[in-house]
Amino acid sequence: MNVIKTDVLDVYILEPKKFGDNRGWFMESWNQHAMEEAGLHYNFVQDNHSFSAQKGTLRGLHFQKGDACQAKLVRCARGSVMDVAVDLRKGSPTYLKWVAVELTPQNNRQLLIPRGFAHGFVTLSDDVEFLYKADNFYCPQADAGIRWNDPDIGVDWGVENPVISEKDAHSPFLKECDVSFVYEVKK
Predict the structure, then answer these.
(1) Of 12, 42, 119, 132, which is the active-site residue?
(2) How far apart are the C-alpha atoms of 147 and 185, rounded to whole Å?
(3) Containing domain of residue 78, as a range?
(4) How many domains does one find in the chain?
(5) What is the pLDDT along the chain (187 residues), one digit of tens a residue?
(6) Does residue 138 carry a catalytic annotation?
(7) How far apart are alpha carbons 64 and 118 in whole angstroms?
(8) Catalytic residue among 12, 42, 62, 119
(9) Is-contact 73 111, C-beta < 8 A?
(10) CATH of the domain at 140
(11) 132 is a catalytic site residue
């Protein structure tokens, strides 16, 4: 597995090796031992799978607060997305910076997003299947989000009028949120 640092601290692009022959292909999308050898320690407990029918569908920016916060490993199994992670950890050298990565089944890329980040994606094609692992269980009481077009964050989604849920359309702006993530220096 190829592990690539991004410009946002602690967010990594993972490129699993894909092996193919005349029958098709095989890919190991997660190997805890390989990740630990790379210094990445995650214990994923939940897998999620979503489908978006229409190009330009935007989901985000989502996170869970407090003890329910989640790290995620995300990938696109069908279609293509631009995946975004925003650093919400106060005190981080990359606080409020965001990274965007195109994820497709063809490029095999995955994005590893630690706790303390908001996450979202926009579909670049119709009929998108998106998968992600989380290291904490979903907790409805801790569910939170920031408006997708928050000017203090300034994500360039590449779409003017995305297809969004009512919930995402009415998410608060960052300055209205009680985000309490704090950056901790790794020892």
Answers:
(1) 132
(2) 28
(3) 2-176
(4) 1
(5) 899 999 999 999 999 999 999 999 999 999 999 999 999 999 999 999 999 999 999 999 999 999 999 999 999 999 999 999 999 999 999 999 999 999 999 999 999 999 999 999 999 999 999 999 999 999 999 999 999 999 999 999 999 899 999 999 999 999 999 888 999 887 6
(6) no
(7) 8
(8) 62
(9) yes
(10) 2.60.120.10
(11) yes
